[in-house]
Amino acid sequence: MTKDMHQKAFEEHTLDKLSIYEKYLKSALPLFMMRPDINQINIMDYFCGSGTDVNGVPGSPLRAIEAVRSTLLSEQIDRKKKIVMLFNDLEKDKIAKLNDMLKNIENLPNNVELQYESKPFDDLFDKTYCMLNARGTANVIFIDQYGLSEVTRDIFERLARLDNTDFLFFLSSATYYRFKDDENVKNKIPVLTDVENASLTPSNVHRTIALAYKRWIPTGRMLYMGNFSLKHGANVYGLVFGSGHFAGLDKFLHVAWESNPETAGQADYDIDSDKISLSQPSLFASMNKPTKLKMFEQDLCEEIKARKLQDNKSIYLYSLEYGVLPSHVQDALKTLISEGILPQQRFSVSKTCMKKPSVKIIWSK
After folding, report:
1. Terminal Cα distance for the chain, rounded
2. How far is CA 333 from CA 172, 300, 312, 330, in A?
3. What global pTM score does this model have?
Protein backbone atom coordinates (compact mmCIF):
# COMPACT_ATOMS: atom_id res chain seq x y z
CA MET A 1 0.00 0.00 0.00
CA THR A 2 1.23 3.53 -0.81
CA LYS A 3 2.48 5.39 2.22
CA ASP A 4 0.46 8.45 3.19
CA MET A 5 2.83 11.43 3.22
CA HIS A 6 0.24 13.54 5.04
CA GLN A 7 0.42 11.31 8.12
CA LYS A 8 4.05 12.27 8.70
CA ALA A 9 6.31 15.29 8.31
CA PHE A 10 6.97 16.30 4.72
CA GLU A 11 10.40 15.18 3.54
CA GLU A 12 12.84 17.71 2.09
CA HIS A 13 12.17 16.64 -1.51
CA THR A 14 8.43 17.07 -0.95
CA LEU A 15 8.98 20.56 0.46
CA ASP A 16 11.13 21.43 -2.59
CA LYS A 17 8.37 20.19 -4.89
CA LEU A 18 5.71 22.20 -3.06
CA SER A 19 7.91 25.29 -3.02
CA ILE A 20 8.40 25.15 -6.80
CA TYR A 21 4.65 24.74 -7.31
CA GLU A 22 3.82 27.69 -5.06
CA LYS A 23 6.47 29.99 -6.53
CA TYR A 24 5.43 29.10 -10.03
CA LEU A 25 1.79 29.87 -9.27
CA LYS A 26 2.76 33.25 -7.84
CA SER A 27 4.71 34.12 -10.98
CA ALA A 28 2.24 32.70 -13.53
CA LEU A 29 -1.09 33.90 -12.15
CA PRO A 30 -0.48 37.63 -12.81
CA LEU A 31 0.16 36.84 -16.49
CA PHE A 32 -3.19 35.12 -16.82
CA MET A 33 -4.99 37.71 -14.70
CA MET A 34 -3.83 40.60 -16.89
CA ARG A 35 -4.86 39.03 -20.19
CA PRO A 36 -8.06 40.63 -21.54
CA ASP A 37 -9.09 37.44 -23.38
CA ILE A 38 -9.19 35.40 -20.14
CA ASN A 39 -12.24 35.64 -17.88
CA GLN A 40 -11.79 32.48 -15.76
CA ILE A 41 -8.71 30.79 -14.32
CA ASN A 42 -8.90 27.18 -13.18
CA ILE A 43 -6.38 25.88 -10.65
CA MET A 44 -6.71 22.11 -10.60
CA ASP A 45 -5.10 20.00 -7.87
CA TYR A 46 -6.03 16.42 -8.69
CA PHE A 47 -4.13 14.76 -5.80
CA CYS A 48 -4.44 17.38 -3.09
CA GLY A 49 -4.23 15.42 0.17
CA SER A 50 -5.60 16.77 3.44
CA GLY A 51 -3.93 20.19 3.22
CA THR A 52 -1.03 19.84 5.64
CA ASP A 53 1.42 17.29 6.97
CA VAL A 54 1.22 15.93 10.49
CA ASN A 55 2.96 19.07 11.82
CA GLY A 56 0.66 21.49 10.06
CA VAL A 57 3.12 22.40 7.30
CA PRO A 58 1.06 23.60 4.31
CA GLY A 59 0.56 21.25 1.38
CA SER A 60 -0.41 22.17 -2.16
CA PRO A 61 -3.98 23.44 -1.45
CA LEU A 62 -2.92 26.01 1.16
CA ARG A 63 0.05 27.08 -0.95
CA ALA A 64 -2.19 27.58 -3.97
CA ILE A 65 -4.65 29.65 -1.94
CA GLU A 66 -1.80 31.80 -0.63
CA ALA A 67 -0.56 32.31 -4.20
CA VAL A 68 -4.04 33.41 -5.29
CA ARG A 69 -4.50 35.70 -2.32
CA SER A 70 -1.12 37.41 -2.76
CA THR A 71 -1.78 37.84 -6.49
CA LEU A 72 -5.17 39.43 -5.92
CA LEU A 73 -3.65 41.93 -3.47
CA SER A 74 -1.79 43.55 -6.35
CA GLU A 75 -3.33 46.85 -7.40
CA GLN A 76 -2.80 46.04 -11.08
CA ILE A 77 -4.86 42.85 -11.01
CA ASP A 78 -8.42 42.68 -12.35
CA ARG A 79 -10.38 41.17 -9.45
CA LYS A 80 -13.44 40.60 -11.61
CA LYS A 81 -11.98 37.48 -13.19
CA LYS A 82 -13.31 34.28 -11.70
CA ILE A 83 -10.86 31.85 -10.14
CA VAL A 84 -11.99 28.24 -9.68
CA MET A 85 -9.83 26.13 -7.38
CA LEU A 86 -10.62 22.42 -7.51
CA PHE A 87 -9.20 20.05 -4.90
CA ASN A 88 -9.52 16.31 -5.36
CA ASP A 89 -8.37 13.28 -3.41
CA LEU A 90 -9.60 9.73 -3.69
CA GLU A 91 -9.76 9.46 0.10
CA LYS A 92 -12.94 11.17 1.25
CA ASP A 93 -11.69 11.73 4.79
CA LYS A 94 -8.85 13.88 3.43
CA ILE A 95 -11.27 16.00 1.43
CA ALA A 96 -13.52 16.36 4.47
CA LYS A 97 -10.55 17.50 6.56
CA LEU A 98 -9.45 19.95 3.87
CA ASN A 99 -12.98 21.32 3.51
CA ASP A 100 -13.20 21.95 7.25
CA MET A 101 -9.80 23.63 7.22
CA LEU A 102 -10.58 25.94 4.31
CA LYS A 103 -13.90 27.06 5.81
CA ASN A 104 -11.82 29.13 8.22
CA ILE A 105 -9.66 30.78 5.54
CA GLU A 106 -9.80 34.53 6.06
CA ASN A 107 -9.79 37.30 3.46
CA LEU A 108 -10.44 35.01 0.51
CA PRO A 109 -11.78 37.25 -2.27
CA ASN A 110 -15.34 36.57 -3.37
CA ASN A 111 -14.29 35.94 -6.98
CA VAL A 112 -12.56 32.73 -5.80
CA GLU A 113 -14.66 29.56 -5.87
CA LEU A 114 -13.50 26.44 -4.04
CA GLN A 115 -14.64 23.04 -5.28
CA TYR A 116 -14.05 19.62 -3.73
CA GLU A 117 -14.15 16.17 -5.27
CA SER A 118 -13.23 12.64 -4.27
CA LYS A 119 -12.92 10.75 -7.52
CA PRO A 120 -10.34 8.69 -9.43
CA PHE A 121 -8.10 10.99 -11.44
CA ASP A 122 -9.01 9.77 -14.92
CA ASP A 123 -12.75 10.01 -14.17
CA LEU A 124 -12.44 13.54 -12.83
CA PHE A 125 -10.14 14.63 -15.65
CA ASP A 126 -12.80 13.49 -18.13
CA LYS A 127 -15.49 15.30 -16.15
CA THR A 128 -13.57 18.59 -15.95
CA TYR A 129 -12.03 18.59 -19.44
CA CYS A 130 -14.84 20.62 -21.00
CA MET A 131 -14.34 23.31 -18.35
CA LEU A 132 -10.59 23.31 -18.99
CA ASN A 133 -11.16 23.56 -22.73
CA ALA A 134 -13.79 26.32 -22.59
CA ARG A 135 -13.21 29.55 -24.44
CA GLY A 136 -11.84 32.40 -22.34
CA THR A 137 -10.33 30.12 -19.69
CA ALA A 138 -6.77 29.58 -18.50
CA ASN A 139 -5.57 26.62 -16.46
CA VAL A 140 -2.82 25.73 -14.04
CA ILE A 141 -2.93 21.96 -13.51
CA PHE A 142 -1.05 20.11 -10.78
CA ILE A 143 -0.99 16.31 -10.94
CA ASP A 144 0.90 15.09 -7.89
CA GLN A 145 0.48 11.41 -8.74
CA TYR A 146 1.99 8.49 -6.87
CA GLY A 147 4.28 6.46 -9.13
CA LEU A 148 3.99 6.58 -12.93
CA SER A 149 0.48 5.40 -13.73
CA GLU A 150 -1.83 8.38 -14.07
CA VAL A 151 -0.29 10.54 -16.81
CA THR A 152 -0.79 8.16 -19.69
CA ARG A 153 -0.09 9.09 -23.30
CA ASP A 154 -3.77 9.92 -23.78
CA ILE A 155 -3.81 12.19 -20.71
CA PHE A 156 -0.57 13.88 -21.75
CA GLU A 157 -1.81 14.56 -25.29
CA ARG A 158 -5.06 16.01 -23.95
CA LEU A 159 -3.11 18.28 -21.61
CA ALA A 160 -0.92 19.39 -24.52
CA ARG A 161 -3.99 20.28 -26.62
CA LEU A 162 -5.44 22.65 -24.04
CA ASP A 163 -5.02 26.36 -24.81
CA ASN A 164 -3.77 28.80 -22.17
CA THR A 165 -2.66 25.94 -19.96
CA ASP A 166 0.38 25.28 -17.81
CA PHE A 167 0.74 21.92 -16.12
CA LEU A 168 3.05 20.26 -13.62
CA PHE A 169 3.06 16.57 -12.88
CA PHE A 170 5.13 14.53 -10.44
CA LEU A 171 6.94 11.42 -11.57
CA SER A 172 8.42 8.59 -9.51
CA SER A 173 11.34 8.18 -11.88
CA ALA A 174 13.12 5.89 -9.44
CA THR A 175 10.35 3.35 -10.00
CA TYR A 176 11.20 3.19 -13.69
CA TYR A 177 14.91 2.83 -12.97
CA ARG A 178 14.28 0.02 -10.52
CA PHE A 179 11.90 -1.88 -12.81
CA LYS A 180 13.00 -0.71 -16.26
CA ASP A 181 12.97 -4.24 -17.67
CA ASP A 182 9.35 -4.80 -16.62
CA GLU A 183 7.07 -4.28 -19.64
CA ASN A 184 4.23 -3.00 -17.45
CA VAL A 185 6.49 -0.26 -16.12
CA LYS A 186 8.09 0.56 -19.48
CA ASN A 187 4.68 1.08 -21.06
CA LYS A 188 3.79 3.87 -18.63
CA ILE A 189 6.31 6.38 -20.02
CA PRO A 190 7.53 7.39 -23.49
CA VAL A 191 9.82 4.79 -25.04
CA LEU A 192 13.48 5.55 -24.35
CA THR A 193 16.04 5.07 -27.09
CA ASP A 194 18.86 2.55 -26.81
CA VAL A 195 21.28 5.44 -26.28
CA GLU A 196 19.14 6.89 -23.49
CA ASN A 197 18.81 3.53 -21.75
CA ALA A 198 22.56 2.92 -22.05
CA SER A 199 23.38 6.27 -20.42
CA LEU A 200 20.66 6.03 -17.76
CA THR A 201 21.85 6.41 -14.16
CA PRO A 202 20.04 6.75 -10.83
CA SER A 203 21.08 10.42 -10.90
CA ASN A 204 19.89 11.41 -14.37
CA VAL A 205 16.85 9.13 -14.69
CA HIS A 206 14.22 11.83 -14.18
CA ARG A 207 15.85 14.30 -16.55
CA THR A 208 16.07 11.59 -19.22
CA ILE A 209 12.43 10.53 -18.87
CA ALA A 210 11.19 14.13 -18.70
CA LEU A 211 12.89 14.99 -21.99
CA ALA A 212 11.37 11.88 -23.59
CA TYR A 213 7.86 13.25 -23.01
CA LYS A 214 8.50 15.64 -25.90
CA ARG A 215 7.88 12.65 -28.16
CA TRP A 216 4.27 12.59 -26.97
CA ILE A 217 3.54 16.16 -28.05
CA PRO A 218 0.78 15.94 -30.67
CA THR A 219 1.80 16.75 -34.24
CA GLY A 220 1.34 20.42 -35.01
CA ARG A 221 1.02 21.40 -31.35
CA MET A 222 3.56 23.73 -29.69
CA LEU A 223 4.44 22.78 -26.13
CA TYR A 224 7.33 24.22 -24.14
CA MET A 225 8.65 21.75 -21.57
CA GLY A 226 10.92 21.82 -18.54
CA ASN A 227 11.79 19.53 -15.63
CA PHE A 228 13.26 19.48 -12.14
CA SER A 229 14.74 16.42 -10.39
CA LEU A 230 14.24 15.71 -6.67
CA LYS A 231 16.22 13.31 -4.54
CA HIS A 232 15.14 11.38 -1.46
CA GLY A 233 17.79 9.05 -0.12
CA ALA A 234 19.00 6.98 -3.06
CA ASN A 235 15.83 7.56 -5.07
CA VAL A 236 15.22 10.27 -7.65
CA TYR A 237 11.80 11.71 -8.45
CA GLY A 238 10.83 14.91 -10.18
CA LEU A 239 8.49 17.36 -11.84
CA VAL A 240 7.64 17.62 -15.52
CA PHE A 241 6.39 21.00 -16.72
CA GLY A 242 4.49 21.93 -19.86
CA SER A 243 3.11 25.16 -21.27
CA GLY A 244 1.66 26.17 -24.61
CA HIS A 245 3.39 29.56 -24.35
CA PHE A 246 7.08 30.41 -24.12
CA ALA A 247 6.36 32.79 -21.22
CA GLY A 248 5.22 29.84 -19.12
CA LEU A 249 8.52 28.02 -19.58
CA ASP A 250 10.40 31.27 -18.95
CA LYS A 251 8.65 31.58 -15.58
CA PHE A 252 9.26 27.94 -14.68
CA LEU A 253 12.98 28.15 -15.51
CA HIS A 254 13.41 31.25 -13.39
CA VAL A 255 11.79 29.45 -10.43
CA ALA A 256 13.93 26.35 -11.02
CA TRP A 257 17.19 28.32 -11.29
CA GLU A 258 16.29 30.28 -8.17
CA SER A 259 15.75 26.95 -6.38
CA ASN A 260 19.26 25.72 -7.21
CA PRO A 261 21.59 27.70 -9.50
CA GLU A 262 24.47 25.36 -8.63
CA THR A 263 22.80 22.59 -10.66
CA ALA A 264 21.69 24.84 -13.53
CA GLY A 265 18.14 24.80 -12.22
CA GLN A 266 17.85 21.07 -12.86
CA ALA A 267 17.67 19.44 -9.45
CA ASP A 268 17.85 19.76 -5.68
CA TYR A 269 21.07 17.70 -5.74
CA ASP A 270 24.34 17.62 -7.70
CA ILE A 271 22.90 15.90 -10.75
CA ASP A 272 26.10 16.00 -12.88
CA SER A 273 28.65 15.71 -10.03
CA ASP A 274 29.87 19.27 -10.68
CA LYS A 275 30.73 19.90 -7.00
CA ILE A 276 29.94 23.60 -7.34
CA SER A 277 29.43 25.76 -4.26
CA LEU A 278 28.48 29.37 -4.89
CA SER A 279 29.26 30.18 -1.25
CA GLN A 280 32.85 29.01 -1.83
CA PRO A 281 33.46 29.56 -5.55
CA SER A 282 36.54 28.32 -7.35
CA LEU A 283 39.25 30.79 -8.35
CA PHE A 284 38.70 29.65 -11.93
CA ALA A 285 35.43 30.97 -13.35
CA SER A 286 34.96 27.98 -15.65
CA MET A 287 34.92 25.68 -12.61
CA ASN A 288 31.85 27.51 -11.28
CA LYS A 289 29.75 26.69 -14.33
CA PRO A 290 27.52 23.60 -14.22
CA THR A 291 28.12 20.99 -16.91
CA LYS A 292 24.79 21.76 -18.54
CA LEU A 293 25.67 25.45 -18.90
CA LYS A 294 29.01 24.60 -20.51
CA MET A 295 27.28 22.26 -22.93
CA PHE A 296 24.70 24.93 -23.74
CA GLU A 297 27.36 27.49 -24.59
CA GLN A 298 29.20 25.01 -26.83
CA ASP A 299 26.02 23.91 -28.60
CA LEU A 300 24.74 27.47 -29.00
CA CYS A 301 28.04 28.53 -30.57
CA GLU A 302 27.79 25.65 -33.04
CA GLU A 303 24.19 26.52 -33.93
CA ILE A 304 25.15 30.15 -34.57
CA LYS A 305 28.26 29.20 -36.55
CA ALA A 306 26.09 26.97 -38.74
CA ARG A 307 23.70 29.95 -39.12
CA LYS A 308 20.80 27.85 -37.86
CA LEU A 309 20.07 30.69 -35.39
CA GLN A 310 20.21 34.15 -36.94
CA ASP A 311 18.31 36.52 -34.66
CA ASN A 312 17.63 37.22 -31.00
CA LYS A 313 14.17 35.60 -31.00
CA SER A 314 15.41 32.25 -32.27
CA ILE A 315 18.29 32.33 -29.78
CA TYR A 316 15.90 33.17 -26.93
CA LEU A 317 13.62 30.23 -27.75
CA TYR A 318 16.65 27.94 -28.18
CA SER A 319 17.85 28.83 -24.67
CA LEU A 320 14.41 28.07 -23.18
CA GLU A 321 14.16 24.71 -24.93
CA TYR A 322 17.65 23.89 -23.66
CA GLY A 323 16.53 24.65 -20.11
CA VAL A 324 18.75 27.65 -19.36
CA LEU A 325 17.96 31.28 -18.72
CA PRO A 326 18.23 33.73 -21.63
CA SER A 327 20.78 35.72 -19.61
CA HIS A 328 23.23 32.85 -20.07
CA VAL A 329 23.40 33.53 -23.81
CA GLN A 330 25.84 36.40 -23.33
CA ASP A 331 28.90 34.28 -22.50
CA ALA A 332 28.46 32.30 -25.72
CA LEU A 333 28.19 35.52 -27.74
CA LYS A 334 31.33 36.86 -26.06
CA THR A 335 33.16 33.70 -27.11
CA LEU A 336 32.10 34.14 -30.73
CA ILE A 337 33.17 37.79 -30.66
CA SER A 338 36.56 36.93 -29.12
CA GLU A 339 37.08 34.32 -31.87
CA GLY A 340 36.35 36.94 -34.52
CA ILE A 341 33.29 35.06 -35.80
CA LEU A 342 31.03 37.91 -34.76
CA PRO A 343 31.89 41.61 -34.48
CA GLN A 344 31.02 43.68 -31.43
CA GLN A 345 27.27 44.34 -31.40
CA ARG A 346 24.33 45.15 -29.15
CA PHE A 347 22.23 42.05 -28.92
CA SER A 348 19.47 41.67 -26.31
CA VAL A 349 18.09 38.21 -25.59
CA SER A 350 15.19 38.19 -23.13
CA LYS A 351 11.44 37.65 -22.93
CA THR A 352 10.82 41.27 -23.95
CA CYS A 353 12.51 40.69 -27.31
CA MET A 354 9.52 38.54 -28.32
CA LYS A 355 7.30 41.64 -28.29
CA LYS A 356 9.56 43.60 -30.62
CA PRO A 357 10.87 43.16 -34.18
CA SER A 358 13.66 40.57 -34.28
CA VAL A 359 17.27 41.76 -34.27
CA LYS A 360 19.45 39.97 -36.80
CA ILE A 361 22.98 38.81 -36.00
CA ILE A 362 25.69 40.96 -37.58
CA TRP A 363 28.38 38.76 -39.09
CA SER A 364 32.06 39.48 -39.55
CA LYS A 365 33.00 39.96 -43.20
Report:
1. 67
2. 38, 9, 11, 5
3. 0.92
